[in-house]
Amino acid sequence: MLELSNDELLSTTRAVRKRLDLERSVDRDIIEECLKLALQAPNGGNMNNWHWLVVDDQKTIARMAEIYNQGLEDFIATFGEQGYAGADVLGADRIESSTQHLRDHFHELPAVLLPMVAGRTDQAAGYPGAAFYQASIWGSVIQAVWSFMLALRSRGLGSAWTTGHLWREQEMADLLGIPYNNFMQVGLFPIAYTKGVDFKPAHREPLQNVLSWNRFEEQ
Description:
The protein is α+β, with helices and mostly antiparallel strands. It has helices at 6-9, 28-38, 58-76, 92-105, 130-139, 142-154, 169-176, 207-210, and strands at 50-55, 111-118, 157-158, 183-185, 189-193. The two termini are 19 Å apart.
């Protein structure tokens, strides 16, 4: 079995929740430095149809935390009697504990990034070329967001890709003055230094279980 070294893990990044250092401030300069690198990522037609909102005002972050948690409650309410479909996934208990930790401490984050992209994919469903339209929009911002997370990682900071607030995207837009009909929110990304940098590889299905050559074959 291939083992990844910590240096090799620098080429990717773990989702960090429990090990975010909530007591250490993050200078705006380092966030802007990471964003400058992120903006070098490819985007469709080089249109730069994105906007990046960083919040470091603690009162605003506290209100964002409320919306984030309310959104997750909306999501949990959809489980019904069957419960969460991923409950039997290996490590689900650790994921749940980590997610709950972030929920409990979101209001203490030193900074939060909220990226946006122009256009709305939720208006494309059912139209010819909908998959093309959606993939083009998401592909024009996800690469930059991931580059931002990698830039954080290389500087001793961490983040996690969270989307719970999108159940209440309009409410978040109203709070932050975002023109909802023109910009779609990508997620909320905590920004903080990490407590240590010795992250371990996560469980993943072996490559041979998820890889096909030349023609799709479900394992």
